[in-house]
Amino acid sequence: MDSTRIITIDGPAASGKSTLAKKLAQKIGWSFLDTGLLYRALAFAAQRAGLLEKGPEELGRFACQLKIKVLLEKDRNRVFLDGEELTDLLRTPMISRAASQVSAVGQVRSSLRELQKTLGERGNLVTEGRDQGSAIFPKARLKFYLTASPEARAQRRYLELGKDSGPLSAILQSVLERDHQDSTRADDPLVIPAGAVKVDSTDKSLESVFEFMLQKAISVFGVICK
Question: How far is CA 189 from the centre of its chain?
């Protein structure tokens, strides 16, 4: 199978990458990869081992020793660590913060890079993240860069988290901090991938963005929708 039969969706925090990637994969019958879940699994393991407060060198060595397995499904990913399924343990705010921390470590990113490439070898994959079209799958035939204003993204995250979200101002500050971290890290920083279709969803509905992306996929790959 052609490994270029991949759709990458990159973009900053709370831009809608996961929701749209999953929806697109379901519609065209391809697999879906949530790369953030890999970093969450690693963060969960590091927290359980008491290593989150250690330096990047120790976190990097720890990451290289882990055996992470991912089962790709059209509506979700299942993640296993040394045979133990972690999928339902990885969506807490605490793990989200820890994942942000470990994802900035170069050796951590390197340890997960080959796993992601392996998952894309067979093609027919919709993958989302912050380095998919630039560093992981630079030869993907269709790349999107999905963005929105920080204020719009903070508002979406606020509505997503509900009563446990905290004040909107704090969420906006968190979004801005994550943007800075992602765009300035030394290893695989967040950039607009070469050849990517940029989509600013600030004033667009999720459905209109999805329809645009779907039509692009149909025109590039000739896929038949499910």
Answer: 13
Q: Of 160, 145, 157, give the one whose Cα is nearest residue 201.
A: 145
Q: Distance between CA 3 and CA 141 in Å, rounded?
A: 9
Which tokens go with 225?
């929708």
Claim: this prediction has a pTM higher than 0.90: yes
Mean pLDDT of 100-122: 91
User: Contact at 8 Å (CB) between 71 and 141?
Assistant: no
From CA 76, how far away is CA 31, in angstroms rounded? 9
CA 89 to chain CA mean position, Å: 17
Question: Tokens 């446990």 belong to which residue?
Answer: 164
Q: Mean of the per-residue pLDDT values for the chain?
A: 92
Between β-strands 77-81 and 197-200, what pairing exists: parallel, antiparallel or unpaired?
unpaired
**Which among 1, 12, 2, 35 has a CA at the least distance from the CA of 142?**
2
Rounded mean pLDDT, 138-155: 96
Which residues, listed in sequence order, are joined to residue 9 by a DSSP beta bridge? 128, 144
**Superfamily of domain 6-211, CATH level 4:** P-loop containing nucleotide triphosphate hydrolases (3.40.50.300)
Q: How far is CA 7 from each of CA 1, 48, 61, 113, 134, rounded to the nearest angstrom?
A: 15, 34, 31, 17, 12
Q: Name 160's Cβ contacts closer than 8 Å, sequence gap at least 6.
A: 14
Largest CA distance in the chain: 49
CA 32 – CA 10 distance, rounded (Å) = 14
